[in-house]
Amino acid sequence: MIRLTLIACFISSVCFSQTNELYTLAFKKKENFKILSAFNQRIPETFEVINTTEKWNPQTFFLKDLDLRNPKVIDSLKYEEHHPYLFAYLFSNPKLDALIPDAEKERLSKRASQIKPSKIAFKGNGFQLVERFNKPLGFYFLIASPVYSTDNRYAFLKISVKEKRVFLDEKMDDYYAILTIMFEKDLNGKWKQIGIKDHLIL
Predict the structure, then answer these.
(1) In sequence order, what are the residues at sequence separation of 6 or more whose Cβ sits closer than 8 angstroms to the Cβ of residue 45?
(2) Burial of 136 by CB count in 10 Å (0-12 exposed, 13-18 middle, 19+ buried)?
(3) Residue 85 neighbours by CB distance under 10 Å
(4) Which is nearest to 133 in space by CA: 157, 160, 162?
(5) Residue 74 pLDDT > 70, yes or no?
(6) For 114-143, what is each residue's pLDDT tens digit?
(7) Which residue, 159, 146, 127, is CA-closest to 185?
(8) Mean pLDDT throughout 66-81?
(9) Domain limits of the chain?
């Protein structure tokens, strides 16, 4: 019983460490947030992140009933402005698509759909955790718990950007962008970012 408890604690500690590392890598790379300056806004000096995770969109990893190996299908989707292939599906990037088999994409999608919101337990490195964003104006962020490939070689992180602003004298608090980041673990067990999909919500 003691041995099982120790193993469980070890696994929990490893997961905690991996998650912290991924969040830190994502927020320390300011280039990830260049989309925030699309309308001449400033990238925040401090990233304020809500301390409860949010849900994934399973379509980030897998789209049902689409033959994405058919070039004609891909060409037709380019004109579908609101299709998830354009705003959600990470593997519309051919380089990232080549790294993950189709069966694994479906497994990732299922895994993502099962992750429920939870409190973030650790202190941020490169970002600040907050219960709520109290400033009257500016960007703040929500993150989803990481999703890992079956072999633990790849990890995926979603960051949602929200913005408080005033438009025509009306206070707004809307989603601004979604960032999906893909990481790969190197031979030394360290994560490195290998891709990002950013989508501006208009």
Answers:
(1) none
(2) exposed
(3) 18
(4) 162
(5) yes
(6) 999 999 977 767 899 999 999 999 999 999
(7) 146
(8) 82
(9) 46-200
How many C-alpha atoms does 157 have within 13 Å on its Cβ side? 24
What distance in Å separates the CA atoms of residue 8 and residue 22, rounded to the nearest whole number?
21
**Eight-class DSSP state of 196:** E
Instruction: Map residue 23 onto helix, strand or coil.
Output: helix
pTM of the model as a whole: 0.87
> Which amino acid would we find at residue 20?
N
Mean pLDDT, the chain, whole residue set: 88
Residue 127 corresponds to which tokens in the numbers above? 């970002």
133's CB contacts (< 8 A; 6+ apart) are: 48, 50, 140, 162, 164
